[in-house]
Amino acid sequence: MSTRGIRPPAIRLRWVLALALLAPGVAAQQQPRVEVSLQPRSGITEIDPIRLTVTIEGTDRPPAVRLPKLVNLKLIGGPSTSTQVRSDFRTTRRLVSLTWTLLAEGPGAAEIPSIEVPLGATVLRTEPIRFEVAPAAAGSGAAPGAPGAPGEGAGDGADVVLRARLGTEEVWVGEPVPLSVELYTGARVASPDWREVPSFPKFWVETDEVDPDAESYRATLGGRRYVVYPLERKLLVPQSPGEYTIDPFVLQLEVRASGARDDFFDFFSFGRTRTIIRKTEPLGLRVRPLPTANVPGGFGGAVGTFSMNVELDRREVAVDEGVALRVTIEGNGFLKPVKAPELAAPPDLRIFPPKATESQRARGGKMLSKKTWEWVLVPLAAGELTLPEIRFAYFDTADGRYRVASSDPLTLVVKRGAAGASAIAETRGDVRLERRDIAFIKTRRGPLAEGSPRIHQQGLFRFLLVLPLLLLPLVILAGRRQARLQSNRGLARSRKARARARKRLAAARRRLSQVDSGTFHEQVARTLVEYAADRFDRPAAGLTYDKLDELLASRQVDAELARSFRNCLENCDFARFVPAAGQAERRRETLDQAAELVERLERAL
User: Fold this and answer.
1) Residue 430: which of 562, 529, 327 has the closest Cα?
2) In Å, how far are 231, 248, 333, 592 from 209, measured between CA atoms?
3) pTM exceeds 0.85, yes or no
4) Cis omega before residue 40 (within 30°)?
C-alpha cells in the first residue's frame, strides 16, 4: 500500500500548528496600549526636575498628545520623542515615547490628571498620578532622601545655590532699586538655561551688562566656599506705590561630579552629568508714595540726585535772528517721564517748542541719566533782554525732601537788524521767511512797442497748421494716458512726486553757495514736505510734523525711516534761525540726506 497520499496532510498539519503558535504574537503586535511613568518616583522636592514619560505601544508615529491642566506643576520643556522596536521569537513591539520636563510650583499635593492619547479612531487614557512635593531650601541642593542623595558629592548639585537680592527693601516711587542674581557653585556646571524670569509690569527696567567669567569671585555661604558668578543685574524703577513681590528666577543647568573649576561656561566634560533646577526665593519690596506736602511748583516726577546746566549758544544777536537755549539735567535717577522746565519769556521774545534728547544707562547699581531740552528764541525788538531764572524741581532720595535747582538770569543783547529784513511768520509750528512782493507788469517809461511780427505773419504759422495732423497718433496715445491719470489724480500726482523732488533738490544744489543758510534750508524742507504731499495726495499747507508721522505710519513705513524724515525737517527749521547750525560745509550733507530720504521713501511707499 502506497504512503504518498498520507504525507501532504502531515505537512499541512505542521504549518497549521506553527501558525497557531505565532497567532498570539501577531495579535499582541497590533494591540495598542499606553503606559505612563514618572522620574523620580518618590522624594520629589520643589527644585527637582520631573520627567513625565508616556509610552505608546502599537504605533510607529508619535501621536498628538496634549497635557491636561496640571495641579501644582508647570511645564518647562518638551515633549521630546523617541521610537524603538523590540522583537523576539513570537512578538514584535513598536514603542513611541513622549517625554516632558515638569517643575513643582511649590510644596504640597501635586497631580497629573488622566492623559488622552489619540490613535486613529481610538483614544487611550492613562491613570492619574498623585504625589507630594517636599519643601527644599530655595537655591539649595536636593533634599535629604531624594533620589541620588545617598553618596551624593559636591559635583552632584548639592553645592549649587541660586540667589537673588535687592539693593534695599524700601524705596520711593520713581527711585531705582538694584536687583542682582548670582550663582554660588562648588561643582562643574554647564549649559545654563533660564526656565523662568519674572516680569515687572509695574516697573521700568534697565538692564546692566554682566560678564560672569570676568566678574566671578569667591565667597563663603553657610560655612562652605563657593565660586560666585553674577548672572543678572537690573535696575527696577517702581511707577506706583504699594507692596510688591518679585517672583523667583528659575535656572536649569548641567552638573558633573568633579572638583572645583575655574571656568563657568566653557569646560571639557567627561563622566556622568545630570540636569538640576535651581530657583531663587521670592523678594519683597515696599514702595512709598512721594510726600504730598511742600511740593514745589513745576515738579514733573524727577526722583534722584541731579544737577542743571543752562546756556545760550551766543549772547549777541540781531532782531529776527534765532538763538539756541539749552537746559541740561543729569545725575543719578530716572528722567524719562520728566517734561521740559517752564520758560517765562519777555514780551519781545518768541519761543518755539523745545527739542529733547535723552540718554540713560545702568552702571554699578546706579541709573545715570541725562536729558537736554533746546529752544529756539527769536527776539522781535532791539535792546537788552533778560531771561528770568529757570527752575527744575526734583525729589532728593538722599534726604527724602524736594529740592529746586535754579539758574542765574541770562542777558541777551539784541541789535537792530538790516533794513528790509524779512519778517518771520509762523504757520502750524513751522517757521518760514516771507520774501514775496508785488511783481509789476511794466517798469520802464515810454510807449509800448511790438517786439516781433504777429504770429500769422510768420512762415512758421503754415507749418503749425499741418503739424496737428502729423502728431495726431501721439496725441491720441497721450490723451488716453491723460484720461487714465485724470480718473485717478492722486495716482498721477504720486507718480510725479519723485521727479519733482529730485528736480528741486538739483536746483538747490546748483545754488548751494549763492543763497544764505535760511533760504537754502527753507528750500530743502519745502521739497521734502511737498514730496510727502504729492505721495499722499494732500495739500502741503496743512502738513504738520505730527500729521506727517501719522501718514507714514498709515503706510507702515519703518519707524526708523519716519524718525529720520522728521529729524531732517527739524534740523532744517533749526538751521534757518541759528546761523551757527547751518554752516556752509554742512549744507551738502543736508542735501545728500534729503535725497537719500526721498529714495528710501519711494521704495517704502
Assistant:
1) 529
2) 9, 21, 18, 37
3) no
4) yes
